[in-house]
Amino acid sequence: MVFSNYLAPLHDFSDLPFRRMCQGYGAKAACVPLVSSAAIAMDESRISLIDAHADERNLGVQIFGNDAKTIGRAAGIIARRLPSVSWLNLNCGCPSTRTMNDGSGSAMLRKPDLIAGAISQMKSSADLPVSAKIRIVRGAGGTLALCRKIEDAGADFIIIHGRTTNQGYSGKPDWEAVRALKEELSVPVVGNGDVTSIEGGEKRVKEGYCDSYMVGRAAMRNPMLFAGRIPAGAGERFALLAEYASLCDRYRDATGGPRLRDIKIKAMNFLSGIPGASVLRLQVSRAASIEEILGLGESAGNAL
Ligand SMILES: Cc1cc2nc3c(=O)[nH]c(=O)nc-3n(C[C@H](O)[C@H](O)[C@H](O)COP(=O)(O)O)c2cc1C
């Protein structure tokens, strides 16, 4: 089961209101960003860390960890406690020092047996499709050997970010490597890395690079891309911000209502790459309230 496109898990960004926005514009699937398997396995009440909502469709939850049994236990709890979740993902790609030092995230790429063990534990404890999100691995064994292990462990699909751990989020993703993997594997491959439009993602699928695609940073700047749209100017970008704020309000039970910090983070992204962005972003960063930020949109809209 793969969907035709995915909103990427984006820590501190793809929260419930943002996912609902992207889903509203046509994202076919989305994923709750990384949640600690240890936290959930040790204390079931920590399931509250996951902001999944019944309004969401084709929602995945991504977990991270460094112990296969703990990861499996957390997967079982999520599947049992959150009926709105329809697939699970294991994070094997986070390059942050904190995650790597803990032996989880991208550090797992050096331990294919650990990844395979975790996938197999997830499969046996949760009656849901299970996937791994990996990066390209250079050198001994390489990505293909790793993917085969993941496949043999029972994964239903594999999400491949076409960059190495060392690349972080910069440099070009290696789509030729993604294509070579897709050709060899029997499970579907979701390709990820610098997809900036629906047309671009669909072209990757049509040209045989992957079975589906995942969009990260381009959606952070423009959630409308899932509808094939680019917001016209500052006015429309502030309208996106107002839409996000209103969704924070609508899902108040989960979000606690719109928060200045979140609105600022979204504004910094939505307002990037347009004329006058630097001035607007400075004004946003100095704003003391959400009303003040949304008010900037009225003057920006009138100026257009
Ligand atoms: C702010 C930010 C947060 C991210 N958080 C996660 C995460 O929680 N889990 C994960 O697997 N990848 C995470 N990623 C990586 C993205 O899911 C994606 O793989 C990466 O950005 C490449 O896709 P892109 O080129 O379309 O942005 C994050 C990336 C960014 C920029």
Explain the layout of strands and helices:
Layout: E1 5-7, H1 16-24, E2 29-36, H2 37-42, E3 59-64, H3 68-81, E4 85-92, H4 97-101, H5 112-125, E5 130-135, H6 142-152, E6 157-161, H7 175-184, E7 189-192, H8 198-206, E8 212-215, H9 217-221, H10 234-250, H11 252-255, H12 260-270, H13 277-286, H14 290-303
Parallel strand pairs: 1-2, 1-8, 2-3, 3-4, 4-5, 5-6, 6-7, 7-8
Helix pairs in contact: 1-10, 3-5, 5-6, 10-12, 10-14
What do you see in this structure?
The protein contains 14 helices and eight strands. α3 (68-81) runs parallel beside α5, α5 (112-125) packs parallel to α6 and α10 packs antiparallel against α12. The protein folds into two domains: 5-227, TIM Barrel (Alpha-Beta Barrel), CATH 3.20.20.70; 234-303, no CATH class. Strands 1-2-3-4-5-6-7-8 form an eight-stranded parallel β-barrel, surrounded by six helices. It is an alpha/beta fold and 304 residues long. Bound molecules: flavin mononucleotide.
Can you describe this structure in just a few lines?
Helices cover 46% and strands 14% of the residues. The protein has 304 residues and is α/β, with parallel strands linked by helices.
